[in-house]
Amino acid sequence: MKLEELIDQIEKIDSYKRFGSVKRVVGLMIESQGPESSVGDVCCIHIGKGRTRKIQAEVVGFKNESVILMPYTDVQDISPGCLVEASSKPLEVKIGTALIGQVIDSLGQPLDGSQLPKGLTPVLTEQSPPNPLKRPPISEPIEVGVRMIDSMLTVGNGQRVGIFAGSGVGKSTLLGMIARNTNADLNVIALIGERGREVREFIERDLGPEGLNRSIVVVATSDQPALMRIKGAYTATAIAEYFRDKGLNVMLMMDSVTRVAMAQREIGLAVGEPPTTKGYTPSVFAVLPKLLERTGTNEHGSITAFYTVLVDGDDMNEPIADTVRGILDGHFVLDRALANKGQYPAINVLKSVSRVMNHIADSDHIKSAEKVREMLSTYINAEDLINIGAYKRGSSIEIDEAIRLYPSIISFLKQETHEKISILESVGQLKGIAGKGE
Ligand SMILES: Nc1ncnc2c1ncn2[C@@H]1O[C@H](COP(=O)(O)OP(=O)(O)OP(=O)(O)O)[C@@H](O)[C@H]1O
Ligand SMILES: [Mg+2]
User: Domain named AAA+ ATPase: which ranges (predicted)?
Assistant: First the structure.
């Protein structure tokens, strides 16, 4: 760089530090007089005796003459007059290949309290989605290594899918399987709003060392402040974006996006937004599309994303489920009835859709999947009659065929947690079953 340019830059540097002071604390919100800042900026609040400790907080709004801040951590020892120091920039986290295999928190710090590795690049956690015109269409499948998905609900490289499920039907197990088996270059896994106990269980049991070695895990447990839970989602997405810009095919998994929406609702209500459907505030419905649109393809690489959505009972019309389903390119429904029967992964194929499958699979594959779907649905429709013995063989050719093939279809759909299978094999087996019906 030339000397003049350097001098020019020095002249432009803002050498002032801006301070404000805490006026009052109401619940989760801190009101301060100053500093000059904009929404989304991070500030440091000097707290404790002698004001020796600092906590980070974010500007979430303004009221009359004061700045409203929300802390990233629990607040203790805060008192009127505490100094609020503006950083004049939004939250950044440090990202790089050295993070692979690490478990970090929403602010990008290792969860075990160790030091961050060297050589990382600071990146803003909030980014805009890629320009729609620069997004290449999804044109090829990505292998997830789960037979039922690869064959019947083929996922495209850069597709975004919602996994809709109640509690305890196998979401974490399924995500762990995908993380271990996929041929994506890297996994970024965001665990948002989980209980603390589940985090270790997921990392050790579902992900295992082989899964963790090709993953970066971002954790914000349910006991953390709402802002941290939201930031967990942003940080994980920013990490996935960083590697996508390096040309990689990234797999992002977020468990769960419902808890992100709940955290946004908490913040919305605290800053005085009106509650609308099910108490969700308008900002929830503004934030979700912005977050979910960030993944997918761009001109460099791709982020294939799985977002889990919690549904109580079978209520797919709950506002978050409904909004998320509208934004994404597919939805997989995990069914408690299947889990109760021991049919794992408990994906209900007949209720699930991959919207890009028809563009990325060959016609033989599509026909076979349709055939198996049809047969399964014929069997399910007649299942009650068959079970009570009211169906007489020979009454319908379709039902006879469905009864004959049902056992092979079910054993095809089932998969042990540690069974690994390639997409080629899965599609081959699917074609085999469909062929038997001809
Ligand atoms: N593929 C599978 N094979 C065998 N058992 C399975 C499989 N998937 C899930 N299970 C069983 O279901 C149980 C619950 O699974 P999991 O913890 O993955 O559910 P979850 O939806 O993540 O639950 P939560 O809502 O509590 O987070 C597991 O303990 C396991 O016994
Ligand atoms: Mg779970």
Answer: 157-338
Distance CA 271, CA 335 (A): 37
Q: Is the CB of 131 under 6 A from ligand 1?
A: no
Q: Counting beta carbons within 10 angstroms of the beta carbon of residue 185, is it exposed (0 to 12), middle (13 to 18) or buried (19 or more)? A: middle
Does the CB atom of residue 345 touch ligand 1 within 6 A?
yes
Q: What is the mean pLDDT of the chain?
A: 91
Residues with CB under 5 Å of ion ligand 2 are 171-172
**pLDDT tens column, 389-419:** 888 887 888 888 888 899 999 999 999 999 9
Whose C-alpha lies nearest to ligand 1, atom 25? 167
**Cα-to-centroid distance, 267 and ligand 2 (Å):** 24
Atom of ligand 1 minimally distant from the CA of 345:
1
If pLDDT is split at 50, 70 and 90, which confidence band does 437 have?
Answer: low
Instruction: Report whether 277 contacts 286 (CB < 8 A).
Output: no
* Ligand 1 contact via 167 beta carbon (within 6 Å): yes
The pLDDT tens digits for 252-289 are 999 989 999 999 999 888 888 899 888 899 999 999 99
Query: 93-358 and 364-435: same fold?
Result: no
Instruction: Tell which one of 144, 163, 173 to mutate to probe ligand 1, the residue whose CB is within 8 A of the most ligand atoms.
Output: 173
Instruction: Tell me what the mean pLDDT of segment 339-361 comes to.
Output: 93
| 17, pLDDT greater than 90 | no
The CATH number for 93-358, chosen from 3.40.50.2020, 3.30.450.20, 3.40.50.12240, 2.60.120.330, is 3.40.50.12240
Please report the DSSP string for 61-96 in residue order.
EEETTEEEEEESS---S--TT-EEEEEEEE-EEEE-
User: Taking the domains of the chain in order of start, what are their residue ranges?
Assistant: 18-90, 93-358, 364-435
Residue 169 CA: nearest ligand 1 atom is: 21
User: What is the distance in A from the centroid of ligand 1 to the CA of 214?
Assistant: 22
Residue 169 C-alpha to ligand 1 middle, in angstroms?
A: 5
3-class SS of residue 151 = helix
Spatial CA neighbour of 329 closest among 365, 293, 361: 293
Atom of ligand 1 nearest to the CA of 206: 18
Q: What is the CATH number of domain 364-435?
A: 1.20.1270.330
- What kind of fold does domain 18-90 have according to CATH? Thrombin, subunit H (2.40.10)
394: number of CA atoms within 13 Å, CB side?
Answer: 1
